Amino acid sequence: MTSQPNASDEPTARADEQRDETPADAGETGPADGPDAADGEPEIVDGRTIEHLLTDHERDIASTAEGTDATAAKRPSLDLPRLELGRRDFMKAGAAVGAMSGLAGCTSILADEDDDSGGAAGSGEHSVAPGEHDEYYGFLSGGHTGEIRVVGLPSMRELMRIPVFQTESARGYGHDAKSSRMLEEEGDGHVWGDTHHPRVSQTDNDYDGRWLFVNDKANGRMARVDLEYFETDAITNVPNCQGVHGACMQLPDTQLVFGVGEFRVPMPNDGRDVQSPDEYGSVITAIDPETMDVEWQVEVDGNMDNGDGGKEGRWFFATGYNSEEGTTEGEMARSDRDYVKAFDIPAIWDAVESGQYEEISGVPVVDGTKDSPLNEGDRPIVRYVATPKSPHGVSVTPNGKYAIASGKLDPSCTVIDIEAIAEVDDPQDAIVGQPRIGMGPLHTAYDGRGHAYTTTFIDSEVVKWDYEAAVEAEAGSEEPVVDRHDVHYNPGHLIAAESYTASPQGDYLVSLNKLSKDRFLPVGPIHPENDQLFHIGDDDAGMQLVKDKPSYPEPHDASIVHKDKIDPAKTWDPDDYELEYVAEGEESFERVDDSTVEIEMWARRNEYAFPEVTLREGDEVRLKISNIETTSDVIHSIAIPEYDINLALAPQDTREVTFTADQPGVFWAYCAYFCSALHLEMRSRILVEPSA
Ligand code: RUQ
Ligand code: CUA
What we know:
Layout: H1 15-20, H2 26-29, H3 48-64, H4 70-74, H5 87-115, E1 136-141, E2 147-153, E3 158-163, H6 177-185, E4 199-203, E5 206-216, E6 221-226, E7 231-237, E8 244-249, E9 257-261, E10 282-287, E11 294-300, E12 307-309, E13 315-319, H7 329-332, E14 338-344, H8 345-353, E15 358-360, E16 363-367, E17 382-387, E18 394-396, E19 402-406, E20 413-417, H9 418-421, E21 431-433, E22 441-446, E23 451-456, E24 461-466, H10 467-472, E25 481-486, E26 491-496, E27 508-513, E28 529-535, E29 544-551, E30 558-562, E31 588-593, E32 596-604, E33 607-608, E34 612-616, E35 619-627, E36 636-640, E37 645-649, E38 654-661, E39 665-670, E40 683-689
Parallel strand pairs: 11-16, 32-35, 34-40
Antiparallel strand pairs: 1-2, 1-30, 2-3, 4-5, 5-6, 6-7, 8-9, 9-10, 10-11, 12-13, 13-14, 14-17, 15-16, 18-19, 19-20, 20-21, 22-23, 23-24, 24-25, 26-27, 27-28, 28-29, 31-32, 32-33, 35-38, 36-37, 39-40
Helix pairs in contact: 3-5
Bound molecules: (dicuprio-$l^{3}-sulfanyl)-sulfanyl-copper and dinuclear copper ion.
The site of dinuclear copper ion (CUA) has 7 residues, from loops.
């Protein structure tokens, strides 16, 4: 175990000297005390802690830059303004501290090698030999690539990518009729998305391997991935909100899937109220996991951010910032408190069923704002629990007892007693713990042994703490912290194996770091992210850094599922596909009328049913094709590049596409998947005869 120089320590020229300073010193340079939950008055006034941090690090960087991280030292953005702290300043502080932790990290790596002797990077018990299988599936979001990535743990080998909101040519996604229709109809023609939170469906608070749900922060959508075929099978365009950020579900049995709206917009956003930000709203959306239909929405005050479901089916939680309802970063970060909102699902259903909603864009929208009549009386639909300051991640402990929110602009995490929420008069009184974790706490995961692990974006650490100890301790105490470990660098989410279930596995944890800086061979000015694997299974040995994995931008959240809980198909079952399979001997070429042709054909090693197809210029062609291979892993495709056709076909799969043969000439259709020794010969000649 190593510790990072405390953010508020006096600057010194050497990182190892910094490390020796005790956290107690921090109190002399900045008001390090956490907020006091008891009286509800934050002791940190308007970001002062972070302001100090900025000032200190400016000096740190000046004193340590030379000969250490020259690139960082030269970077002009490191001249941090010391004005009133806005959100952008905070982010800059993150970048600055990233540079700093780069320095600290370099020395601490040496220290790590001693401390982590049991888990040297990529070797020994945490490596997976060639030909061996991993223990876990990791499903990582792909951020603004719009996809999901599947990695094996603990090897961290990337196994597959699942396109969700973007077209993707290797898998032919967005090229065949069904997937392109789905992208078009449920996307207003958008060609990309921004996936953040992949959540795997559960039954009885454990992964059932059916589906994975993920949000689109860019275009306000939710999607479902079928985990039998590892393929996106439904997308829902969510009305009345711009970005869907957090994603979570009603547990224990995935009764509903929730999309947490972030950006506030007029509702409906049709040109009304553009100049009246007061009228903008932010909604959470409940979606039926089977039909993917929107059931209802709840409008709330402020911005929302992340979400997680309680384990017992009654509550789910969303963090939020911007209770100020500002439109600029300065306005949004002004107040010292924002809210964790606790949504009472049965009470919301009651309101919907008794007609207490307004229909907006065809969806029942229930008023969950603070002043709503539905929040008066003894069963409010939304409880607003005030926490410091722009809380970001929220996650429910495996035993279902607590919802823990990370302070983001405050160094604490807030522990909310879920059972108490219904009992207390003032939601504030459900707060039972508020340990000081470190600077910039973002997300929290669990090992199932009573420990929480929280990322600190500014300190660049994973902080392990005991949440029952945090309930016992004074607010603002660091005592519940049992271990800290540097990460490289500036982590967003982290996730432990099966952390979102009632029984986490407790052995592995991945920190999804936003910056990799010097950790890999340089590849130009856009660096990869760095996903770091920790072994957390040995409480005596502490967290052990096992390996670094560079990642294409940019994984946000992840879910880690034991391999026994997922049962992927080896080939397609034609019964699962809505198109009828074209068997050998059933191929057909039919001219339906003067300008319409229907082709049904098959593919196998190394041929298509038709070595040659003759069309007339202007024909509208519906092409359907089955891969009649029964051997797994023998994939074919059909590409007709001049017509932008590209269908990928797993064994027993059937896909179709329609195109207009508007260019006369000779066009070779070919197979783009390397399938056999005669793969290059696998082709069909498409002849388009000129019309006149
Ligand atoms: S958020 S780095 Cu999109 Cu999950 Cu927190
Ligand atoms: Cu089929 Cu290459």
